[in-house]
Amino acid sequence: MSVKSISTTAAEADKPRVASGRIGSLLPGILVCLAVTVVAIAVQALEERATGHPYVEALVIAILLGIALRTLWSPGERFRAGIAFSAKQVLELAVTLLGASISLGAIVASGTSLLVGIVATVVLAIVASYAICRLLGLPPRMAILVACGNAICGNSAIAAVAPVIGADSKDVVAAIAFTAVLGVLMVLGLPLFVPLVGLSEHQYGTLAGLTVYAVPQVLAATVPVGILATQVGTLVKLVRVLMLGPVVVAFSFIAPYLPAEGGSAKGRPGRLGFFKIVPWFILGFLALATLRSIGLVPDAASQPVTRVAGLLTVVSMAALGLGVDVRVLARVGGRVTLAVTGSLVVLLLVSLSLIWALGIT
């Protein structure tokens, strides 16, 4: 047997050992993230039992628990690889699986005028929110996270856009934390628009679908008003969520042109192939969404896949929380709060304008 053959055989024999070693290095950190996830889900379950609605979702609870644990305990070298893996690769897999919940049928059912209005609202909200964030001195990637979270679906949009634009974990946590607080306030305060502005159930449902961040929060905000408001709000919200795919793809093309951390421009990138610009998980997202739309992913399969995606997102948020120094949040807190609040006000004004422009009664 030749020396080359012996070397090849030895390399083949070492592959299982290398793979098991890789898994072993990741396991401790992943287990910590899973433990935080279990607690976060349990807290949400208790919240739902007590109030009937998840005002603060497990995703946000996981971040807060991760930050609290990080404040009390600094993960050693043994845990860092697994935590980093959970924050990046697990999140990318979650974004891919979310495609199974997207169906183009919802777009067709919503009607052309409302569809165009929702698209215009999302685009205007992203542009206006980004401008507000930049005027307040937030860095470009942070501004994009806040803008997308505000315009589309809060935490999920932030989590989906973050890996595409290469956002820092501290920016992701800050954007989600402050968006989550205002999301709860929206659920509690939005019904006041019914008597203050004189909205009908149909108008209020449209407003809730255009402004409230998460689908469960839309239900919480509309159920007290009436069944029509709930039905309209849920439909509008689902169509708004469908904007996440195109927006993420758009930012995957913009990302190479964003300035580097610290303000220095990266400059125009060289020639990049399509697969270099659009990350694998976005292609996976679009593939699953296409299969779902043409009926190759049935409802029976879509629902469990979506639940797995939600679970993986909570795991990744726990990892992000574990990687954040709470003092960083304190330094950016004021500006982020102003940015999210200003963006939300703009979204409300644009949404009300759309309702009146379309003549919704």
What does this structure look like?
- Helix content is 79%, strand content 0%.
- Helix 1 packs across helix 2, helix 6 packs parallel to helix 8 and helix 7 packs antiparallel against helix 8 (169-189).
- It has 361 residues and is an all-alpha fold.
- The chain is built from 17 helices and no strands.
- The chain has one domain (26-263, 272-357).
- The chain has helices at 3-51, 58-72, 77-98, 105-110, 112-135, 140-153, 155-165, 169-189, 193-197, 201-211, 215-222, 227-241, 244-254, 274-277, 280-293, 299-322, 326-357.
- It is a multi-pass membrane protein.
- InterPro entries: UPF0324_pro.
- Pfam families: Cons_hypoth698.
- It comes from Methylobacterium goesingense.
Helix content bin: over 70%
Q: What general outline do the C-alpha atoms trace?
A: globular
SSE succession: HHHHHHHHHHHHHHHHH
How many domains, in number, for the residues? 1
Largest sheet: none
> What is the CA-CA span between the terminal residues?
84 Å
The average pLDDT score comes to 79
Tally of individual helices: 17
* Radius of gyration, taken over Cα atoms and rounded to an integer in Å: 22 Å
User: What is the structural class?
Assistant: mainly alpha
Q: Got a strand count? A: 0
Low-confidence stretches: 263-272
Strand content: under 5%
